[in-house]
Amino acid sequence: MDEQQPSGHEVSPPEEDKVVDVRAKKPVRRRTKDSSDAKPSVRLNDQKTQSQYEPYKEAAWGFINHWYPAVFSSELQEDQVEGVQICGIPIVLRRVDGQVYALKDRCVHRGVRMSAKPMCFNKETISCWYHGFTFNLKTGNLDTIVGNPDDKLIGTTGVTTYPVHEVCGIVFVFVREDEFPLEDVPPLRHDLPVMFPESSERFPHPLWPAAPHILHEDAIGLGIHRTGESNWRVACENGFDNAHILIHQDNMIVQSNNWVLPLGIRPVSNDCITTFEDDDGPTGLMQWLFSDRWEPILENKKLGISVNGVNGRMYRTSFYLPGVLLVENWPEEYIAQYEWYVPITDDTYEYWEVLVKRCATPEEVEQFKYRYRTVLEPMALNGFNDCDLYARESMQDFYGDGSGWDDEQLVDTDVSPITWRKLASRCNRGIAKPGVGVNGSVKASSLRLRDVSEGVPSRYFVRKVEF
Ligand code: FES
Ligand SMILES: [Fe+2]
Predict the structure, then answer these.
(1) Whole-number Å distance between alpha carbons of 287 and 273
(2) Residue of the nearest CA to atom 4 in ligand 1?
């Protein structure tokens, strides 16, 4: 599809979308329905709408066969070995002569993770610390066994390898099913936001400069990643949720800039969101914020509250498979905020927050780093986004067993997550299977485990929100 042409389809009544769920449904424990379920549903997510995103509801462990950020480049120095877990798959990374290699981090012998005690005898292999099975970094093949070099298993087996693309200070890994053909691996840009100014005609943005992109040669990316204790889907949906502006009213970045936020933002047009499925590009949705397709809400008469004039930062959010957020013109002009919500287990995700700016000279790089360190990281990536992290974790008990997807009662401001769920159901490259033999595959709520480790007992009174 031509990048310059408006494409895909506008948000339309649910019946126009077709989703076929060919996957077997897992049984989920359902809560007892109350009597209100007998009435005609006025929820935006009525039964018919829900049927259009069944695959999404099954994707508790994420979408597989996509590109994900694994580590910042600075976290993997020459000859360093690190282990990560993405979509329930253990992955070991090793950098040799600058090149990063990624293999399944599960020894074929007895299943331990090679990254737990890195052992490398040369530049071509990584050995398992337990009994010495030694795997080729490029092919994953079992090349030898340290103390058993003539065994007939050698050369007949191995571990899956994962394509790597390192750019803008981030190491991306294509997390694939074992049988996904390497020749079918799409370029990284298919799993990243659209680029500007190339897409400026398609998605005009007269109110701010063209957003920087991590594939721009002069782009600098600065950021953090941390583990969030909720399912990756509720994290994604918080990222581009237009109705939660309420939680940010008191944030330091808002108050210190004298921004005045509306009470909410409502969709007022059927084309408030454009979805697109490009043949040679990303799949995503663009929210036409700061246009007449969304209306700021300034007053609630019932509550007797109002906002006198809105004065905030103009921004726009778009969202892409497999779970990538672009916030244009945020938190400052000429900067774009990227976020990834990388599934680790079905109740943890790695929250990536990266600010990207094009810097033409070394001086501009230094200025950006200084601004990042002194203002942007503490006020935007931490202060502001800490509220989001908390909100996601607050949803986990409701969605954790899968029944929340049926019981939630969505309204018209939730058009964004519903549009995303349908799009993701249609266009994902595969639904990750539940993890086996990895962190999180044996169930225990990570939130409760954290409480236990912090010495906080189960409690009768609800814990108060603090942010
Ligand atoms: S478990 Fe890896 S060599 Fe035995
Ligand atoms: Fe937020």
Answers:
(1) 5
(2) 131
Residue 135 Cβ < 6 Å to ligand 1: no
Ligand 1 in reach of 107 Cβ (< 6 A): yes
Residue 146 in contact with ligand 1 by CB distance below 6 A = no
Which residue, by CA, sits nearest to atom 3 of ligand 1?
Answer: 131
**Stretch 340-366: mean pLDDT:** 97
> Of 109, 105, 86, which is closest to residue 94 (Cα–Cα)?
105
216 pocket-lining for ligand 1 (C-beta < 6 Å)? no
Q: Tell me if residue 452 falls in helix, strand or coil.
A: helix
Mean per-residue pLDDT for 123-132? 98
User: How many whole angstroms from 130 Cα to the centroid of ligand 1?
Assistant: 5
Q: Which residue of 92, 106, 108, 110 sits with most ligand 1 atoms within 8 Å of its CB, as the best mutation to test the pocket?
A: 110
Task: Return the higher-pLDDT residue of 450 and 363.
Answer: 363
The pTM score is 0.90
Ligand index nearest the alpha carbon of residue 380: 2
Please report where in the chains the tokens 């019981």 appear, as a residue: 407
Q: Residue 101 carries which side chain, given as an amino acid letter?
A: Y
What is the number of other CB atoms lying within 10 angstroms of the CB of residue 281? 23
Lookup: tokens for 105? 């981090």
The residues with which 164 forms a beta bridge, in sequence order, are: 173
Instruction: Kindly report, residue by residue over 34-88, the tens digit of the pLDDT.
Output: 434 445 568 888 888 989 999 999 999 999 999 999 999 999 999 999 999 999 9
Write the CA distances from 375 to 293, 355, 387, integer angstroms.
32, 12, 17
**Confidence grade of residue 328 (pLDDT, cut at 50, 70, 90):** very high
> Which position has the higher pLDDT, 278 or 219?
219
CA 178, 179, 182, 185 dihedral sign is negative
Q: Which domains does the chain have, with CATH numbers?
A: 71-179+436-467 (2.20.25.10), 187-427 (3.90.380.10)
For ligand 1, is residue 133 a contact (CB within 6 Å)? yes
CA dist., res. 105 & res. 89, Å (int) = 8
For the CA of 110, the closest atom of ligand 1 is 1
Residue 390 CA to ligand 1 center (angstroms) comes to: 40
Return d(Cα 228, Cα 230) in angstroms, integer.
Answer: 6
Could you identify the atom of ligand 1 that is nearest to the CA of residue 131?
3
Query: Tens digits of per-residue pLDDT, 177-205?
Result: 999 999 999 999 999 999 999 999 999 98
CA distance 112 to 297: 55
145 lines ligand 1 (CB under 6 A): no
Mean pLDDT of 220-247: 96
Q: Give distance in angstroms: CA of 128 to centre of ligand 1.
A: 6
CA distance 392 to 467: 13
